[in-house]
Amino acid sequence: MNETATVAVVPGDGIGHEVVPAALEVLDAVADIEYVHVEAGDAVAAQRGTPLPEETLEAVSEADATLFGATGETSADVILPLRDAVDSFVNVRPARTYPGVDAVQPETDLVILRENTEGVYAGMEDRLTEDVSTLTRLVTRSASRRLAEFACDYVESNDHDGFTVAHKNNVMRVTDGLFVDTVREEAAARGVDVDEAYMDAMATHLAMDPAGYDVIVCPNLAGDVLSDLAAGLVGGLGLLPSANVGSERGIFEPVHGCAPDIAGEGIANPSATILSAAMLLEFLGADDAARDVRTAVEATLADGPRTPDLGGTATTDAVAAAVVDRLPDQ
Ligand code: ATP
Q: 270: closest CA among 247, 311, 300?
């Protein structure tokens, strides 16, 4: 990070207002960043009639990167346009276990590369009659190729052997046919090994033997579902970060939602958001700071304090403070 980066901060709703400040404390300790604080979500919709005020869209469109918390009912009206605004074509979702955290499948260590602009999340739904509703599933060669190019780059730069592409081209022959053919072609052109799996069978294999997977490339909805499944394998949603990556900008957010059931109690696990902040640092080129943050989170997960979702009694703030304490002196 050569010059001071600008980062838009969007806490959103619910526990977003707890986990984002926690992550900012950590970022403040390792990097010199200029923040633009803006709002989005249910609460701002209730006050101002729109969940995504113009200044928020503008701030996210112009910032080098965005740290996003979570939004509630208005999520689709917020995060989808924001992902569009930064041309974010892939959602990177790593899921791994940590020493000290109980996990259903302790050997899980994988990353999901999810197509981020189309599929069934392209927003093309209609209610035709009282009885009939429809949804159009959009798949383009260009978006599939862009995802595949990113996957090939990712595999090469992170020393992976190849990737597994998840799809359902035996049923969605035209749309997933195009998706898989394009991914296969790009990987072949780049000399990257590709395995294939039907996404439903993959769910079973993932639950039983996650060590069989390393990098998973998949359509939008499949990535959403498979990453929540992966969260269940590694100890819960409080642990999974994500990056919405565009060619020049990115939005970094925990995989979890705004958790209304625990919002306001100050007990949300901030790890997913702090790890998202580490991904943000890496995106901005601050690799050493990103590594320091990850190491401090790992040490805190191993030795505590831990929030109630991980069996502890600590508050969000106490966990953030413990992570900051474990950072090397700057
Ligand atoms: P969305 O559809 O917006 O992704 P969701 O329906 O998946 O949201 P979440 O808000 O992610 O729901 O919450 C699911 C469950 O996980 C809730 O019981 C919530 O309390 C718990 N949870 C989510 N995030 C955290 C966190 N950071 N710390 C502790 N518990 C969490």
A: 300
Parallel/antiparallel/unpaired status of strands 125-127 and 133-135: antiparallel
pLDDT value at residue 329 = 81
Q: Where are the beta strands (DSSP E) in the chain?
A: 5-12, 33-37, 65-70, 90-96, 109-115, 125-127, 133-135, 162-167, 193-198, 215-218, 241-245, 250-254
Nearest atom (ligand 1) to Cα of 273: 27
- Whether the bond between 305 and the residue before it is cis, its omega within 30 degrees of 0, is yes
Distance from residue 255's CA to the centre of ligand 1 (Å): 9
Instruction: Annotate 111-136 with b (16+ C-beta within 10 A) or e (fewer).
Output: bbbbbbbbbbbbeeeeeeeeeeeeee
Instruction: Give per-residue pLDDT as tens, 31-47.
Output: 999 999 999 999 999 99
Between CA 64 and CA 281 the distance in angstroms is 11
